[in-house]
């Protein structure tokens, strides 16, 4: 009798695990359309600019021999 009960219990646990594994995960939201992102440029003076957009800002410093850019935006928008 105990053996039958344990077998039934083990079977119930196994089947419940299969039922949970087969449930559909909620659909992920679509990624943002980066082609429609608007970036606002602000001149901070002394050839330093701030670019403002969704997800973060970019700071750009212009020099004679190059550019320094600090980017905290989305990778795909950069």
Give structural notes.
With 78 residues, the chain is an alpha+beta fold. It is built from one helix and four strands, in the order αββββ. It has one helix at residues 2-21; strands spanning 40-45, 48-53, 56-63, 66-71. The chain has a four-stranded antiparallel beta sheet, with no helix packed on it. A hairpin with a 2-residue loop joins strand 3 (56-63) and strand 4 (66-71). The radius of gyration is 28 Å and the shape is rod-shaped.
A few lines on this structure:
With 78 residues, the protein is of the alpha+beta class. It has one helix and four strands. The mean pLDDT is 77.
Mean pLDDT: 77
From the spread of the alpha carbons, the general shape counts as: rod-shaped
The end-to-end distance, rounded to whole angstroms, is 67 Å
Number of strands: 4
Low-confidence runs (pLDDT<50, min 5 residues)? none
Quickly count the helices: 1
| Strand neighbour order, sheet with most strands | 1-2-3-4
Main beta-sheet annotation: 4 strands, antiparallel
User: Helical percent range?
Assistant: 25-40%
Name its key features:
single chain, 78 residues, alpha+beta, 4-stranded antiparallel sheet, 4 strands, 26% helix, rod-shaped
How is the secondary structure organized here?
Elements: H1 2-21, E1 40-45, E2 48-53, E3 56-63, E4 66-71
Antiparallel strand pairs: 1-2, 2-3, 3-4
């Amino acid at each position: 009798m105990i053996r039958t009960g344990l077998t039934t219990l083990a079977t119930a646990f196994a089947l419940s695990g299969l039922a949970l594994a087969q449930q559909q995960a909620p659909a992920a939201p679509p990624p943002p359309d980066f082609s429609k992102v608007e970036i606002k440029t602000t001149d901070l003076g002394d050839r330093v600019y701030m670019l403002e957009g969704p997800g973060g800002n970019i700071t750009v410093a212009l020099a004679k021999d190059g550019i320094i850019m600090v980017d905290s935006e989305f990778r795909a928008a950069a």
